[in-house]
Write a structure and sequence with these properties.
The protein has one domain. It is 68% helix and 5% strand. The protein contains eight helices and two strands. Helix 1 packs parallel to helix 8.
Length: 174
């Protein structure tokens, strides 16, 4: 997947989420199915996730290379990244639940700020993706808590899938 396709994918997946969120009544922001996240927690989780990717991509490549190394395998396509993520979620379900239990419930007052933050962060990721060299996207790796080290291009694909994953969860259950 080239950079422009990747950027388009990020935009598309986020726009589907934003459209769905705008249609929801405010009461849904602080509600969710029993023992599941609220809508606000889904958004907060996505904000936290994309901020980490943006922060990591702010470092010079030589620092990332020194700290995490380089990829030792061929790049995976979007569908393979998405499938591996689904497998890891099943494999590490208990670990993921513990990690996510501490996520605070955002208030309705925080809704607009969180949505704006997510919009800004996803645009920032698009900008950073466009500015990075293709070779760096393909060879530099970053750690993911479930997936292990991944080439940055795959991590960006994962970010698009992650947004889609949460959007579908919201659409199906909320």
């Amino acid at each position: 997947m080239n950079k422009e396709e990747l950027i388009d994918l990020l935009e598309q997946k986020h726009q589907v989420l934003f459209s769905w969120l705008e249609e929801q009544p405010n009461e849904k922001w602080t509600q969710g199915p029993e023992d599941k996240w609220t809508t606000g927690q889904h958004v907060l989780h996505l904000v936290n996730s994309i901020k980490l990717v943006n922060h990591a991509m702010s470092f010079p490549g030589f620092i990332l290379k020194y700290k995490f190394g380089t990829s030792n395998r061929a790049l995976r396509d979007y569908n393979t990244v998405a499938e591996r993520y689904r497998e890891k979620l099943v494999q590490y379900e208990e670990r993921a639940q513990k990690f996510n239990q501490q996520l605070k419930t955002p208030t309705l007052v925080q809704k607009r700020t969180l949505l704006n933050t997510l919009k800004i962060q996803q645009k920032k990721l698009q900008y950073k993706t466009r500015k990075w060299k293709d070779a760096s996207l393909d060879t530099l790796v970053l750690p993911h808590p479930l997936m292990g080290k991944m080439p940055v291009r795959e991590l960006i694909m994962w970010t698009a899938h992650h947004t889609d994953h949460h959007t579908k969860s919201l659409q199906n259950s909320y």
